[in-house]
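Task card 7
Instruction: Convert sequence to structure tokens.
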Amino acid sequence: MGPNDAQIVRVFSREPTAPIADCTLDPTKPGEVVLEAEAGQILHDGGGKYWVTLVVRDLSDGSAIPATTAGAPQPGEVAGNFSDGNWPKPAAQFRFVISSADLQNHAGHILQAYGSVVYGQQYPGATLAVSPPFQILRR
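Output:
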């Protein structure tokens, strides 16, 4: 990655605010999908625009599951300018929450998250990543 680029480092599931990834989620409580990304120093310091998107797919039945984050205009999206409150430093972490009700509706299913970051205006760039599959437990 160069100083004018951004890159997704990884996308993974976990229990809310847990320090490590978890390939199983308990449907009796919300789950979390995290997108970690980095921006080159010149891109970040320039304060240009970015748009983070996250889609969670149920691989068992083909449906999409909403994942929300605070202050987002709609599920699965965060938009702003580098150096703002969501991306204050070159390395950033975006947390998306899947509700317990949605997890219960997909208990026993295998899910996967798809993340993207589009950045820049005049000459936009993009980076995409896919999480490892993760299982919603049956309770």
